[in-house]
Amino acid sequence: LADAAFCAALPKAELHLHIEGTLTPAQKLALARRNRHAMASMTLEQIEQTHHFGGSGSPEVDLKQMLDCYYGGIELLSTRSDFFDTALAYLDQCHREGVRYAEISFDPQAHTSRGVPMADVVVGLYEALQYGRATWGVQAQLILCINRDRSVDSALATLDEAAPYRECGWIVGLGLDSNEAGNPPSKFVEVYRRAREQGYRLTAHCDVDQVDSVKHIWQCIELLGVERIDHGINCLEDPDLIEQLRQRGTCLTACPTWRLRDPQPRRVERIRAMLQHGLRVTINSDDPGLLASGTLGRMLPRVAAHGRFTRAEMAQFCRNAFQGAWIDGPTQAAY
Ligand code: ADE
Ligand code: ZN
């Protein structure tokens, strides 16, 4: 079996991580004080209380509650330095936990809609990536996530605004996140077509146990042409879909994350089944600041113990992540 020391020593990659979801209550309080935000008047305990969501009994409501907390904290990020510091704190943690490579998602619309310039978001994040690489040798790339509960026009305008950063290679991929109910992948066909033309690598969320999840996963591969799916655990309900994902080598970025009210990792048996089906499934932290599971390095030994995973299985999750990573050419040989 894979013990904590084995998990710590594994070279790790993280492909599904929202930078806005890395903010812990303490980080939120520090940002609130610095930016003179109303949250500065709250105590740490009060902010921690807002992180107690979930457990409603409905996956859609639980996701909505989690997103309310996530987007409630997002407005603490307003300057270039806020983005730089937040990304650097995450990369520092990667370095300490043996995460050698990370693909970091960000939600530009949630910032630009508040008047934060796209340049401050992207340049702040990208400068942290350069600093992290130079200081710790941790490699990372950026994924621009479209908020699926906003309009297609807003998504297209966001692609236009981000075009200069895509052209110079500062953004590698496009994702799709936020509230899935009523916002199927099919809504974004035109957005993905344009993004593909601009050279983006493509992924999209199909969150766990959402309505029509299987249908949404099919839409992602057939209509959007994604190479990866974020979560995608419900593929297990359709044998034809499993076969299709296996043949395509689609990477599925699963998150056995747990909330404050959950005592144990979640979704572990389904993640094991995905591995046993030969799917390219990986383990990720998603929103380590919001979720009790925390960072990848903290979560992995708990998942290994709870699922009684062998060393070979834990290594396979990590190998899948490096294989699913959007690294081209000679760099990949380093792994
Ligand atoms: N944004 C941050 N985390 C998310 C998740 N798990 N699903 C959808 N949108 C998100
Ligand atoms: Zn996510």
* Major sheet summary line: 8 strands, parallel
Strand content: 5-15%
Along the chain, the helix and strand elements come as HEHHHHEHHEHEHEHEHEHEHHH
Bound molecules: adenine, zinc ion
CATH class: Alpha Beta
Structural class of the helix and strand makeup? alpha/beta
What spatial order of strands do you see in the largest sheet? Answer: 1-2-3-4-5-6-7-8
The CATH architecture assignment turns out to be: Alpha-Beta Barrel
The overall number of domains is 1
Mean pLDDT: 96
- As for the CATH topology, it is TIM Barrel
Return Rg in Å: 19 Å
Summed up, the helix count is: 15
Structure summary, number of beta strands: 8
Helix-residue proportion: 40-55%
What is the CATH superfamily? Metal-dependent hydrolases
| Shape type | globular
Topology:
Layout: H1 4-9, E1 12-14, H2 25-34, H3 44-50, H4 59-74, H5 80-97, E2 99-106, H6 108-112, H7 118-136, E3 139-147, H8 152-167, E4 171-177, H9 189-197, E5 201-206, H10 213-224, E6 228-231, H11 239-248, E7 251-254, H12 268-276, E8 280-283, H13 296-307, H14 311-324, H15 330-333
Parallel strand pairs: 1-2, 2-3, 3-4, 4-5, 5-6, 6-7, 7-8
Helix pairs in contact: 2-3, 5-7, 8-9
Bound molecules: adenine and zinc ion.
Adenine binds at residues 18, 21, 70, 177-178, 205, 207, 286-287.
GO molecular function: hydrolase activity
Cofactor: Zn(2+)
Enzyme class: hydrolase
